[in-house]
TrEMBL record:
Keyword Flavoprotein: yes
NCBIfam families, per database record: PRK07573.1, sdhA_Bsu
SUPFAM superfamilies reported for this sequence: FAD/NAD(P)-binding domain (SSF51905), Succinate dehydrogenase/fumarate reductase flavoprotein C-terminal domain (SSF46977), Succinate dehydrogenase/fumarate reductase flavoprotein, catalytic domain (SSF56425)
Every Fumarate reductase/succinate dehydrogenase flavoprotein-like C-terminal domain range: 517-651
Record keywords: Flavoprotein, Oxidoreductase
Obligatory cofactor(s): FAD
A Pfam family reported for this protein in Swiss-Prot or TrEMBL: Succ_DH_flav_C
Highest taxon of the lineage: Bacteria
Official protein name in the record: Succinate dehydrogenase flavoprotein subunit
Domain FAD-dependent oxidoreductase 2 FAD-binding: 44-456
Length: 652
């Protein structure tokens, strides 16, 4: 065990006083405002153009701010938000099945295993309905019932239908809505868009975030940009596991650079494992494919009751349809009858691992379970199924060469979303003044486990509705344009970026960047994945610095600093993962409890469920950087639960 340095100081979360249902309304009534004619004097730098960044850029530009938006993709349309499939939650109660703002708030806090900040979660639930209205007005083609009304489906952790969807491409359609809103403002000259630009560092002037340093991924140019505030909307860090459902370009660099510049990183060990992914096929696979959680509305998850039958399936001696009903273990329905196949992601993932560890996995590797649609096809018909999930079925068949209409899908848990992120207050501002963090890049709304269909909700909530109201709180305390790139801090940051790039290029080792990333991913998955122990975490903490040392001594980065160099891009990102991974393991080691997706094997109830320790760990763990080879400093934000009482989380 490691004794981490603990600070008694914690920045103010700036949560408004009063009843939780009045906090957001009270905040907006009392919030500072900026005259429309004065807004154009302020420059807002937005890093990331997915749902959080795109919606923030469009909305702030419409309000009159001067926006500069940066993304490393060749178009904002290629942000990873496009990969979200199943839907977006909102408390509209269109199905008249008992939903409400409070119910969505309650489900989210409970789903996060009581490790989220109540005030932020309630605001998210409150704003959710506005998101749907906004997106419908933009022309987002949500699924509709026969009569034309918006339809809903269920997602894990809820006993009602509150998820709006566009077949299996909800993220894509929502992103196109935000993208079109951005393009309108780009055409008006209110947004200056920088594609193929990657943020390499954050610039702090007099203790406040006032700019960024980027690398042009086409020309290789290192350049600084100054602004009055910086918004990080850069997603999560799931690719620290190498194999994940994230796009290969997704990385931790922007958030980690902010951390090294003084921003606290909160709850990095809260990493979500999604239960519904296509299983790993081979040692050299670089990406996993998500099958939407929405499929669990219609598919039943099972494995054979006997190891012998499972082995016959693995050897292709029998087909899944040959297994009689009485020899199938629908384990989620058995263990969690109230929620069945829609149990939350963390619980469903561990249940799948448990079945496979018992020798009853059905994939050739032994790590896979069935998601079977036979009953639903028989009940509703193939045409109805295709209307709900057609593109997902097509994608699965394209990848596996199996038709899920005829043969059950094979699925297995994989790294997906990250609930941890940079610490922010109620205004979405980090402890570094002027640095705001939106969407998956912050920690604030999901606790130790995110409910399905809530990622899109948070990203759009933060961008369309929260940051436009909270940003003036900071901007009114600053003089617009007071800092320019002439400040010496910009040149110092540029020089540090160039030095790091040259160092990487000059190693001239023998091992590829991908080989280091893959090795790091194996360490993280084996020792800090679905199940963690003190022993495994200490092993990872010992091995990661060794791998990092080898990286800086033996990595091979071909090409030059000028022009397009994909290997250099990857090397910069993997170098940050090799440092960040250690912080993640430190956080997991420090949290001596099981909660949500953070499952410490030593801390479980007699029935195998997570065992929280509310007396000692009901806090946000906000870590302060102290040096690559130094222990980070722990700051604790106590979590209070005045509206949802702490209880053992049960879905039985």
């Amino acid at each position: 065990m490691i004794n981490f340095p603990v600070s008694d100081w914690m920045p103010d979360a700036n949560i408004p006083s009063g009843p939780i249902q009045d906090k957001w309304s009270k905040y907006k009534l009392e919030a500072k405002l900026i005259n429309p004619n004065n807004r154009r004097k302020y420059t807002v730098l937005i890093v990331g153009s997915g749902l959080a960044g795109g919606s923030a850029a469009a909305t702030l530009a419409e309000l009159g701010y001067n926006v500069k938006c940066f993304c490393y993709q060749d178009s904002p349309r290629r942000a990873h938000s496009i990969a979200a499939q199943g839907g977006i939650n909102a408390a509209k109660n269109y199905q008249n099945d008992g939903d409400s703002v409070y119910r969505l708030f309650y489900d989210t806090v409970k789903g996060g295993d009581f490790r989220a900040r109540e005030a932020n979660v309630y605001r998210l639930a409150e704003v959710s309905s506005n998101i749907i209205d906004q997106c419908v007005a933009q022309g987002v083609p949500f699924g509709r019932e026969y009569g034309g009304l918006l339809d809903n489906r269920s997602f894990g952790g809820a006993q009602l239908k509150r998820t709006f969807y566009s077949r299996g491409q909800t993220g894509q359609q929502l992103l196109l809505g935000a993208y079109q809103a951005m393009e309108k403002e780009i055409a008006k000259g209110h947004i200056e868009m920088f594609t193929r630009h990657e943020m390499m560092d954050l610039v702090i002037v007099d203790g406040e975030a006032k700019g960024i340093v980027t690398r042009d991924l086409v020309t290789g140019e290192i350049k600084s940009y100054a602004g009055d505030t910086v918004l990080l909307c850069t997603g999560g860090y799931g690719n620290v596991f190498f194999l994940s459902t994230n796009a290969m370009g997704c990385n931790v660099t922007a958030a980690y650079k902010a951390y090294k510049r003084g921003a606290f990183f909160a709850n990095p060990c809260f990493t979500q494992i999604h239960p519904t992914c296509i299983p790993v096929k081979g040692d050299y696979q670089s990406k996993l494919t998500l099958m939407s959680e929405s499929l669990r509305n219609s598919g039943r998850i099972w494995v054979p009751k006997s190891r012998e039958t499972a082995e016959k399936i693995r050897k292709k001696e029998i087909k899944p349809s040959d297994v009689p009903e009485e020899e199938r273990d629908y384990y989620l329905e058995r263990k969690y009858p109230s929620f069945g196949n829609l149990a939350p992601r963390d619980i469903s993932s561990r249940a799948a691992k448990e079945a496979c560890d018992d020798g009853r996995g059905v994939a050739i590797t032994g790590k896979g379970v069935f998601l079977d649609f036979a009953d639903e096809i028989k009940r509703m018909g193939r045409e109805w199924i295709d209307g709900q999930y057609g593109n997902l079925f097509d994608m699965y068949e394209e990848i596996t060469d199996d038709d899920p209409h005829e043969t059950p899908m094979m699925i297995y848990p994989a790294s997906h979303y990250t609930m941890g992120g940079l610490w922010v207050d109620y205004n979405l501002m980090s402890n570094v003044k002027g640095l705001h963090v939106l969407g998956e890049a912050n920690f604030s709304d999901h606790g130790a486990n995110r409910l399905g269909a809530s990622a899109l909700m948070q990203g759009l909530s933060d961008g369309y509705f929260v940051i436009p109201a909270t940003l003036p709180t900071y901007l009114t305390s600053t003089k617009p344009g007071a800092v320019t790139t002439a400040a010496p801090e910009f040149k110092a940051a540029e020089d540090a970026v160039k030095e790091r790039i040259n160092k990487l290029l000059n190693v001239k080792g023998t091992k590829t960047v991908d080989s280091f990333h893959r090795e790091l991913g194996l360490i993280m998955w084996d020792d800090c994945g679905m199940a963690r122990t003190e022993e495994s975490l200490m092993r990872a903490i010992e091995r990661i610095p060794q791998l990092r040392k080898e990286f800086w001594e033996n990595v091979l980065v071909t090409g030059t600093a000028e022009g397009i160099n994909a290997e250099l891009e990857k090397a910069c990102r993997v170098a940050d993962f090799l440092e960040f991974a250690q912080l993640l393991c430190y956080d997991a080691l420090n949290r001596q409890e099981s909660c949500g997706a953070h499952f410490r094997v030593e801390y479980q109830l007699p029935d195998g469920e997570a065992k929280r320790n509310d007396e000692e760990y009901a806090y946000v763990a906000a870590w302060e950087y102290a040096g690559v080879d130094e222990l980070p400093i722990l700051h604790k934000e106590p979590l209070t639960f005045d509206n949802v009482h702490l209880a053992i989380r049960s879905y039985k």
